[in-house]
Amino acid sequence: MRLRDLLQADQLALKVLTGHDLLDRRVTGVATTDLPDPARFVKPGELVLTELTWHTGADSSREFVKNLGDVAALVCGTALGVPPADLIDACADAGLPLLTLPVSVPFSQVTEHVLRALIVELGSPPRQKYGSRRRLASTLVEGGSLTKLVTAVAGELDVPCWVLSPTGRVIVGSQPLAEPERRRLAHTFLTARHLPAMVSGLSVFPISRGAPHRIANWFLAYAGEQAQGDNEDLVVELAALVALERSRLEAAQRIERRVLDQLLELLESGDAALPGVVSRLHTLHVETEHGLLAVALHAVDGDVGCAVLDELLRPLAPGVVTSAPGGEAIALVPLAGNTADELTQHVMRGARTLEAGLGEDRITLGVSSVTTGPAALSGVIEEARHARTLAALSGERVSVITGDDVSSHRTLLTAIPAELRRSFRARLLGPLEAYDAANQTDLLETLQAFLEESGSWSATAERLHVHVNTLRYRLRRIEELTGRSLTSWDERVDFMLALRMR
Q1: CA–CA dist 489, 268 (Å, integer)
Q2: For the range 452-458, what are the long-range contacts, defined as Cβ-Cβ under 8 Å and sequence gap of 24 or more?
């Protein structure tokens, strides 16, 4: 579809601010982002939707537009009125069409419209002999499920057909598939030098050849050798339609991710009011009644990590997943009928399956302990991240540390020569010990309490029986004396290890 086709959709009520002569640009997809640097999360030809939360002035507009690259156009919501003049200028200078969307029209409606239009295009080839392809596209356009789509293709090919995830989970299929076969198919998909490939009389075909990593992709499997002729076109068409349907599902997930991003920012500010936390948990449909834990994961990069973590949590305990600084992915997982140990084992089994496709990359995981109240949410997120950092120290291709296992790093410290342990501790904690001795203060005790409470301001202040402002002063003094930042995960780990090196 082209940009001018979007403008003709009355229900979207889009308006053009720049690029009136560029409306013949083709739209190949849609993405939503409010990151100051969106480069890694958008692709050429995509329609990019933004709420402008990244905007801080003219420099931010120029940088944002530059990092969009060769996207089809930028669409801004108009909750704040007309977009900033500096953004309009930046788009005009870059030759980028800028469109506005009324506040009454949600981004999800634009995403749905674009994806359905692309599906229709895929289902409208010029040659009549591909009429079955139009029927496939119509299956989705008319509200049909992936199951109906795959069943239709299985009927056309006259063989069983499935869509699977890289962990071997059957997403949809025309008939049941035994677990050993699922494992073999997943291993072949992850390790085959070239795709399509075959294993045990089944063909394996990737859903999206443009996926950033196989561990974040889906794949098709069908009985028999690689399809030829018209049947090959049918398989390619099915893969494209499944990829579009997955894009539609991911667009809905991005809305949840924005809410979770807001929640994480609120918690990290140190000033999170309980009603605000509860409200966002309610919006995300995350219940704490039966227990809640956090999971942190790093795999390749943040975008791949989000897809991997979402996959590892399904179908046992699907949670809300988002990316975090440093390429980390974070999930909040309500426990309903499962224990934390069952969840950890489930995640680990899936990660072990993905290990075959990692190449030089790694998957590291941290799983927090369980909380039953939103007040402790900041603590469990900190704990999961802390555990994930420790998991990365193992050097294994796939490693997981739980909140209960965090203290197991003591066994690693015993392998370090005593002189080296003393030197490390003296360099990091020596200034605090000297200051405490000279001024009768408790900075070392404050640091230890802060780390043991997973960086929670309120819990640390309560434990030390001091006001939060007093705690803030002490932590600033610690940073000044040591030259280290307590907001850095790596440096918190250094402090924690130094405290253990008695």
Answers
A1: 13
A2: 453/379, 454/378, 454/379, 454/380, 454/382, 454/383, 454/386, 455/378, 455/379, 455/382, 455/486, 455/492, 456/376, 456/378, 456/379, 456/382, 457/270
Q: Are 410 and 429 in contact (CB under 8 A)?
A: no
Listed in sequence order, the DSSP H helices in 221-329 are: 229-268, 274-283, 302-313
Condensed to tens digits (0 to 9), the pLDDT of residues 365-385 reads: 999 988 887 778 888 888 898
Contact 305, 361 (CB under 8 A): no
78 phi/psi in degrees, rounded to 5: -115, 30
Q: Do 388 and 326 touch, CB atoms closer than 8 A?
A: no
**What's the pLDDT band for 311 if we cut at 50, 70, 90?**
very high
Residues 90/19, Cβ–Cβ less than 8 Å: no
State whether residue 198 is helix, strand or coil.
Answer: strand
- End-to-end CA gap in the chain: 66
Whether a cis peptide bond, with omega within 30° of 0, leads into 196 is: yes
Residue-level length of the chain? 502
pLDDT at position 409, please? Answer: 57
Q: Please, how many CA atoms are within 13 Å of residue 502, restricted to the half-sphere of its CB?
A: 2
Distances (CA, A) of 195 to 192, 219, 226: 7, 10, 10
Token reading at 137: 């596209």
CA distance linking residue 228 with residue 235, whole number of Å: 9
* Calpha distance 234→380 (Å, rounded): 48
| 256's tokens | 């949840």
- Check residue 125 and give its pLDDT: 44
Among residues 213, 187, 224, the alpha carbon closest in space to that of 232 is found at 224
User: Residue 329 pairs with which residues in a beta bridge?
Assistant: 297, 323
Nearest 5°: phi and psi at 54? Answer: -80, -15
Overall pTM surpassing 0.85 (yes/no): no
